[in-house]
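Table 4 source record.
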Amino acid sequence: MISMVMMSIGVYARMMKHAEAAMACLAVDPAIMLLVVGVLMFFITFCGCVGSLRENICLLQTFCIFLTLIFILQLAAGILGFIFSDKAQNKVKTVINKAIVHYRDDIDLQNLIDFGQKEFSCCGGIAYTEWTKNQYFNCTPDNPSQERCSVPFSCCLLSKVESVVNTMCGHRMQEQSFSDAGKFIHTEGCIDKLVNWIHGNLFLLGGIALGLAIPQLVGILLSQILINQIKDQIELQNYNLRHRSDPWQ
């Protein structure tokens, strides 16, 4: 049911987008990610559910194999990400740069970036000046956009004492130095903030990883037990049929 809800949300989000914008940023589209995860979850859970209800060995083995592959991939990703942290960081930087380029093309992506920048109190990938990679915030003199050299509102330092929120606080901030811009916006990049957050929450992440791994291991174990029980029942039935037709019995 959860996977079907995820697929429905993903399909609805894709259908609501303009065709040009939807095709421009497939690699960083949250709707596509949600749809892919939903389809994969539905296929795996369907095999496990129907296989156990119908006692179908083929479906149960498919369920077990996919769970094992996902567990191995998660384990390998965690180990490789820890060993090759620099390469993983470069990969994250590439994804964030693509997201910055397509910031205005996809409302879902825009909301996701805004949420990340507000949550981590950061701006851009390495620094706030990376927003020049977006065509609307590009800082070249020939850029006709009124947002030239600006940064999104999610980069701004929000004051609780102000009765009226200044939504234009990021205007022309790329032209300012780090010290001057730091009075109005977050100047530190989101990659460094993300790395610092991961280092400071290793026990939390380890607990989440363990919480995801235990149900997978339990599912693999139970599916193998059920497969062995079904095979034993089949062998017992075949044994009874052979001896029932034995003329010497």
